[in-house]
Amino acid sequence: MREKSPGEVFLRGVWEENPVLIQLLGLCPALAVTNTVLNGIAMSAATTFVLLGSSVLVSLVKDLIPEQVRISAFILIIATFVTIVDLFMAAVAPQVSRALGAFIALIVVNCMILGRQEAFASRNPLGRSALDALGTAGGFTIALVSIGGIREVLGSGTFLGASVMPEGFAPWVIMILPPGGFFALGAILVGLSWWWESEESRDEAVQPRRWPHGVETGAGDRYEAVGPGAASGGGGGGHG
């Protein structure tokens, strides 16, 4: 199988295999802390630090870790970076740290992060592992900011604390409560599903129909020549 280019490695996590919107991983923080955009950004930043740091370190020491204890070693490495970011946020941004609560510590058991160590960082060199981590973190950030944006706008009438809804708007309080995370994620998944189905239908609509092998396309017909004379326009009978 062809090895993916660095750009494809990065974009895989952003879109093709978005951890939240495609693989439905890391849903606990995605649903629990995204009642505001700021909380979503803070959680994304913490997760990015842990994912990038652990991927780089795992890639560097992968040949030194015995096969029998690799999962335990990965968790220990992840826990080290989680402790660093938890203490840093408590010192620099105590309000945000209190808002995120235990979910910072729970990054240790986020299957998205452990999965990238096992599936990619432990099998690839440093550069590609870093790109994979940044792409996955970028996809995670996109998902959390999208969910947080929907919940904050509808639940509080604000975006990053600034009022964005017209005068007289009655906030949907349920959107900043735990069920609001499910509603926002569900709305995004429904929208993506509709968009993908539309794209597939459009691709099928423009797909040329094929004549049997060796038959030329007729004038005015949406058919594609597939026979030996197709490339050169030979055969003479279909363009008169």
Characterise this structure.
The protein has 240 residues and is mostly helical. The protein has one domain. The chain contains eight helices and four strands. The strands form two sheets. It has a two-stranded antiparallel sheet with strand order 1-2. Strand 1 and strand 2 form a beta hairpin. Helix 3 packs across helix 4 (70-92), helix 3 (37-61) packs antiparallel against helix 7 and helix 4 (70-92) crosses helix 6 (111-119). The protein is globular. The two termini are 44 Å apart.
Question: What tags apply to this protein structure?
Answer:
8 helices; two-stranded parallel ribbon; 240 residues; 4 strands; mainly alpha
Brief summary of the model shown:
Helices cover 59% and strands 3% of the residues.
What is the percentage of strand-forming residues? Answer: under 5%
Overall helicity: 55-70%
Can you summarize the main beta sheet? 2 strands, antiparallel
Shape annotation = globular
* Uncertain regions spanning at least 5 consecutive residues: 211-215, 218-240
Distance between the termini: 44 Å
Instruction: Give the helices and strands as they follow along the chain.
Output: HHHHHHHEEHEE
Q: What's the arrangement of strands in the largest beta sheet?
A: 1-2
Count every beta strand, where a strand is a DSSP E run of 2 or more residues: 4
